[in-house]
């Protein structure tokens, strides 16, 4: 039985408190009028940022034209309006990226867990309780994401441009997508997906605990069947979720393998977190039967799915880059122009780093090596979600500053608190899992 | 120089593993073990060095990606930088996404094939090579342990008989 150590609990509260302050600072410093927005951009100019100066002179050029031409005046003010919306979006987007990132970790672990059950894997039952602990975050994390989506529908922010009736009225493309992208249907879909995931999570956890007390394997068999069923539901819902929650911040753009791409990102982050939590618990002496071979297997998954993620990232990028169709390629043009460092930096972090570090069989058994690779992978996949959301919500006004870091700290604290609280509620080793003996003696 | 070797036959891999550990514990040098299939953990019990084939494969992969990069950089960028369908051929990095499939394939090609050839060379396998197994039954259902004799024939014979050998032969062996 695991007891939630006080130090970790206090650390998670501190993370939440500091994060909350960061989030509050982000919302307070967001401009509420066009003048304030211009003042923020202008104050950045005085810091000698050459790029910002350029954009500032562009604004000036607009204003000069404005005195001459009434049409340009309209354009100039719409530019300022746009800037205001981008700056107002900043704290919201920071919150949304972090909320989604941590929810996606729990969801990725849930998918991994269901796969392990459906595949009747012999090595992993020892880690089932760790996975169940991590997936417990799906309930608060999913609800927070849902609340942010509801607030977006209520026009508290401008994250999803298609939710603005004015914009849709002037946008022929968005009118064509109205049948799918309308606020009510959007929320209904989100509710169904979250309900489905949480239902499976809670039911599977219940069966898993009941199996420990029962005299036969009926709970285990039922869990096997519902896991297989869940995977079908998950595959469909995850794909649609990625269109809804991520791709629709950029409603003019579409990509067919986007669902898979988001899946790969959440899957590898989830596996990494399983490895990190397992190593932590083992270092505290709670998982005695977990040996180097279990860590080795998790590290192999981290390695393999990192490559899988890169494969999907590259397939999406290269196909669009190669054909260079204007309506598709703008997605990457904005990212390469305004997000050069995070965009290419994440490929180094998500691909080159884990591939070179985790290729060696011996390194995969060295805990601190796996932890180091895991931290870089997690940071890389945060950047991945950052790169998906930010370009179309805040554009070239992005920065990883107080609101972004604050949101990450807050959700990290909440995640740690919730996960380790759930871990302390049940024994860390399943008793009557039919594969538990095999898992205990697992050796690679 | 011809030397005498002792051949101990076993009909079970578990028994063989025990025998190997016993012979190692008695500090005898095992020349060779012949098995009809891979016995898990036998290399560890015999104390064999781990293979370095994976390291060679990594290096061959590095060769492969270098060949691909140098080749395409010369052909597509330096030698004749044509405009083919508007692809930017001013520098390698600008057109790199188009080259990645080839870079990947050549990396895998070099790593895989050169490693297999290395394996053949190191384990001396080639067509028309004369088979080396001392007894045809070792490819079917018998395991054979070969130990060189240094005036300790009866001692060895006792040890091996005790370890569960079903048959023990002494034969002359020409050292290669």
TrEMBL record, chain A:
Q: Give the UniProt keywords, A-Z.
A: Membrane, Transmembrane, Transmembrane helix
- Keyword Amino-acid biosynthesis annotated: no
Q: Where are the transmembrane segments?
A: 12-30, 93-115, 136-160, 180-200, 228-246, 258-281, 301-321, 341-359, 366-386, 398-423
Q: Record keywords: Transmembrane helix included? A: yes
Q: What is this protein called?
A: Quinol:cytochrome c oxidoreductase quinone-binding subunit 2
Name the domain of life. Answer: Bacteria
Automatic annotation (TrEMBL), chain B:
Q: Which InterPro entries match?
A: ActD
Source organism superkingdom: Bacteria
TM annotation in the entry: 53-76, 96-121
Where is the secretion signal located? none
| Keyword Transmembrane helix set for record | yes
Going by the UniProt record, its keywords in alphabetical order are: Membrane, Transmembrane, Transmembrane helix
Q: Which Pfam families does this entry report, sorted A to Z?
A: ActD
Q: What is this protein called?
A: Quinol:cytochrome c oxidoreductase membrane protein
User: What organism is listed for this UniProt entry?
Assistant: Maribacter vaceletii
């Amino acid at each position: 039985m695991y007891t939630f150590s006080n130090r970790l609990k206090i650390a998670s509260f501190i993370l939440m408190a500091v994060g909350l302050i960061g989030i509050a600072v982000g919302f307070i410093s967001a401009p509420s009028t066009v003048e304030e927005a211009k003042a923020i951009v202008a104050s950045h100019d005085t810091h000698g940022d050459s790029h910002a100066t350029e954009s500032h002179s562009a604004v000036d050029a607009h204003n000069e034209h404005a005195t001459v031409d009434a049409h340009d005046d309209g354009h100039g003010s719409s530019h300022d309006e746009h800037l205001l919306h981008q700056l107002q979006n900043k704290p919201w987007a920071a919150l949304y990226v972090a909320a989604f990132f941590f929810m996606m970790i729990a969801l990725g672990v849930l998918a991994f867990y269901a796969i392990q059950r459906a595949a009747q894997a012999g090595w992993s039952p020892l880690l089932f309780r760790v996975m169940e602990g991590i997936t417990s975050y799906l309930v608060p994390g999913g609800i927070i994401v849902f609340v942010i989506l509801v607030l977006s529908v209520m026009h508290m922010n401008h994250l999803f441009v298609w939710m603005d009736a004015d914009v849709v009225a002037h946008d022929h493309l968005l009118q064509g997508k109205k049948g799918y992208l309308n606020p009510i249907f959007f929320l209904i879909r989100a509710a169904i997906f979250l309900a489905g995931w949480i239902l499976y999570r809670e039911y599977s956890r219940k069966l898993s605990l009941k199996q420990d007390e029962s005299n036969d394997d009926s709970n285990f068999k039922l869990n096997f069947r519902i896991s297989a069923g869940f995977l079908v539901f998950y595959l469909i819902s995850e794909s649609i979720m990625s269109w809804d929650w991520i791709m629709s911040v950029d409603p003019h753009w579409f990509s067919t393998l986007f669902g898979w791409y988001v899946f790969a990102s959440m899957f590898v982050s989830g596996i990494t977190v399983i490895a990190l939590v397992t190593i932590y618990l083992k270092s505290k002496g709670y998982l005695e039967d977990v040996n180097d071979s279990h860590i080795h297997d998790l590290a192999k998954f981290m390695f393999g799915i990192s490559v899988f993620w890169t494969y999907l990232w590259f397939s999406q990028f290269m196909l669009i880059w190669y054909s260079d169709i204007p309506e598709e390629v703008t997605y990457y043009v904005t990212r390469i122009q305004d997000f050069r460092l995070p965009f290419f930096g994440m490929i180094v972090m998500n691909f080159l780093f884990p591939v070179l570090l985790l290729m060696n069989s011996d390194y995969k058994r060295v805990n601190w090596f796996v932890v180091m690779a895991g931290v870089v992978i997690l940071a890389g996949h945060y950047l991945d979600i950052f790169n998906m959301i930010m370009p179309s919500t805040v554009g070239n006004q992005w920065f990883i500053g107080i609101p972004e870091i604050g949101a990450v700290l807050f959700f990290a604290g909440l995640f740690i608190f919730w996960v380790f609280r759930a871990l302390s509620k049940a024994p860390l080793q399943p008793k009557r899992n039919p594969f538990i003996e095999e898992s205990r003696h697992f050796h690679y | 120089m011809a030397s005498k070797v002792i051949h101990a036959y076993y009909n079970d891999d578990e028994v063989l593993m025990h025998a190997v550990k016993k012979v190692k514990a008695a500090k005898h040098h095992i020349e060779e073990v012949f098995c009809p299939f891979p016995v898990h953990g036998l290399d560890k019990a015999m104390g064999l060095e781990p293979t370095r084939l994976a390291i060679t494969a990594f290096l061959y992969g590095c060769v492969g990606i270098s060949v691909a990069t140098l080749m395409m950089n010369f052909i597509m960028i330096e030698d004749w930088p044509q405009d083919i369908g508007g692809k930017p051929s001013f520098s390698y990095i600008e057109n790199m996404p188009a080259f990645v499939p080839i870079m990947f394939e050549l990396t895998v090609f070099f790593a895989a094939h050169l490693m297999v050839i290395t394996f053949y060379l190191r384990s001396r396998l080639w067509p028309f090579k004369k088979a080396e197994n001392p007894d045809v039954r070792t490819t079917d259902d018998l395991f054979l342990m070969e130990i060189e004799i240094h005036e300790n024939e009866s001692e060895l014979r006792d040890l091996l008989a005790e370890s569960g050998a079903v048959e023990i032969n002494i034969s002359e062996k020409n050292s290669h």
